[in-house]
């Protein structure tokens, strides 16, 4: 297995092991493709939990030759999101500036930027919970269910109900 493939599996080891169910399709496929031996299949299946089975498979794969990684990716047809994540990691290897704290900082900046965008969108639409003044005539025309010429006035008066009204 290529060193970069080993590194990707090592980096995503805990994430992958927590999401895979290797007994159903992955281990049989890898056995069929001559990636795993009978003894290795038995070793994997002897593990008590799905996570332990996945971890055992991830321990064995790096030593199973140059075809092991591509066969593993093909075996993930039921787990496409994991396959996509691993392939994305290979296409965009992290540089020194995106590791560790800097990577977390970048993700945090993206998240706060996303939250700020949502806050501004809510404010633009008329606010949440009445904190911001609504647009004249209710929601902007692009968000209104009825065309502007058929807009209905909003009645803001409410009546109190007694528990006996229910």
Q: Topology of this structure?
A:
Blueprint: H1 3-11, H2 13-19, H3 26-32, H4 38-45, H5 50-60, H6 68-75, H7 80-91, H8 100-125
Question: What's the shape?
Answer: globular
CATH topology of the domain at 3-92: Death Domain, Fas
Helical content stands at 40-55%
Mean pLDDT, nearest integer? 74
Q: Pairing-aware structural class of the strands and helices?
A: mainly alpha
Q: What's the Cα radius of gyration? A: 27 Å
Identify the CATH homologous superfamily of the domain at 3-92. Death Domain, Fas
CATH architecture annotation of the domain at 3-92:
Orthogonal Bundle
The main sheet comes to:
none
- What is the terminal separation in angstroms? 68 Å
Number of E-type strands: 0
Could you spell the SSE succession in H and E letters? HHHHHHHH
Q: Can you describe what's shown?
A:
With 166 residues, the protein is mostly helical. The protein has a domain at 3-92: Death Domain, Fas (Orthogonal Bundle). Helix content is 53%, strand content 0%. It is built from eight helices and no strands. Helix 2 crosses helix 5 (50-60) and helix 3 crosses helix 6 (68-75). The radius of gyration is 27 Å and the shape is globular. Residues 128-152 have low confidence and may be disordered.
